[in-house]
Specification:
The complex is a heterodimer of chains A (95) and B (37). Chain A has 95 residues and is an all-alpha fold. Chain A contains three helices and no strands. The longest helix of chain B is centred in the C-terminal third of the chain and has 13 residues. Chain B is elongated, with a radius of gyration of 17 Å. The chains are: A mainly alpha (95), B mainly alpha (37).
Chain lengths: 95, 37
């Protein structure tokens, strides 16, 4: 499974979708990368919720969303930005 | 004069359906692929 997307010295073998994402992030102001990524993460969270994800599974998916978004600046080698230290939100009960 | 720092309005143009669309798709894909574990 060759998916070394965090390999800073590896070749540009990123999936096309990730490459597009990196291109989008490079168009952002460095100071705006993390706030914008946070907004995107919230949007994705809403999409997942609309798909019917609930309970603990929903929390795991949300954690993955923010975890992935946190490291995207480093993966995409955004200048002046390494990671986005998103704060964990406290999701409401999903019963 | 204004303050020493001026925070750009990063979210002023944020549109959930358009902004960072590829990143949203990537985040969604990664999150859903890691369902098991």
């Amino acid at each position: 499974f060759e998916d070394d997307m965090e390999n800073p010295q590896g070749p540009q073998q990123r999936p096309p979708l990730l490459q597009q994402c990196c291109n989008e992030l490079h168009q952002e102001e460095p100071l705006c990368v993390c706030p914008t990524l946070k907004g995107a993460s919230k949007a994705v969270k809403q999409q997942v919720r609309q798909q019917g994800q609930q309970g603990q599974q929903m929390q795991q998916v949300v954690s993955r969303i923010y975890e992935t978004a946190t490291h995207l600046p480093r993966v995409c080698k955004i200048p002046q930005v390494s990671i986005c230290p998103f704060q964990k939100t406290t999701p409401g009960p999903y019963y | 004069p204004a303050g020493p720092f001026r925070i750009p309005k990063c979210r002023k143009e944020f549109q959930q359906a358009q902004h960072l669309k590829a990143c949203q798709q990537w985040l969604h894909k990664q999150a859903m692929q890691s369902g098991s574990g």
